[in-house]
Please model this.
Amino acid sequence: MLRLETLTKTYKTGDQALKGIDLEIPDGQVLALIGPSGAGKSTMIRCINRLVEPTGGKAWLDDTELTGLSQTALRHQRRLMGMIFQEYALVERLTVMENVLSGRLGYVGFWRSWTRRYPQADVDEAFRLLDRVGLLAMADKRADELSGGQRQRVGICRALIQNPKLLLVDEPTASLDPKTSRQIMRLICELCAERGLAAIINIHDVALAQMFVQRVVGLRFGAIEFDGTPEELTPDVLTRIYGEEDWEATIQKVEDEDDAVAVQA
Model:
């Protein structure tokens, strides 16, 4: 379980990005984090694994207080927090397999990774993950030969090979077309269900979030404005989070797509 207690972040400029966030996410739950640009979504994700240092409050992963760890202890805990990035963060000149295996760096050490001498169990798991996401045939391709959706799948494999307890996902569909975006969201949710993983997905596409996740948290000006199910995201709620807009059209889009999926099934 992930637990945040009055988590705050104030930058040197005086801008308060997070204003006392209280949140609990049980194992196996996928949560979408929505809100306008500048609401604090990316900051919150990065404060959890301390890529950004919080100003106050606490973050717990199970019984470990992440905000109280030394840098050495934090490196060990980061192995339990898989990160999936908007821009993939792959090493372009390395192969798909090498990029996936880089997720084991926290376990095998620098020199073994430098010489690419990973344990056979890690290699076997990398092949299994690539097969699961439909990229087994591309294991030896360079990362710069892949499409955006394929790169994101590699990033998912790299995060999962860490054997994490938590996935932190930052705008995984921002650079993808609508069809690929749905495929990636579906894949992340399926993998979390298979592994009992908790996940926080920072996402701008409200309709996409409503289609796939179990819970939605809406941030506005660094504070939680909404915490509930996708079905509870009414036009009034979306107006509170984002401001005035024709939110009925967004909700209708989700309902239409859900109906279309039901008919195909």
Notes: The mean pLDDT is 89. The two ends are 34 Å apart (CA to CA). The chain has one domain: 2-264. Residues 80 and 164 are 4 Å apart (CA to CA).
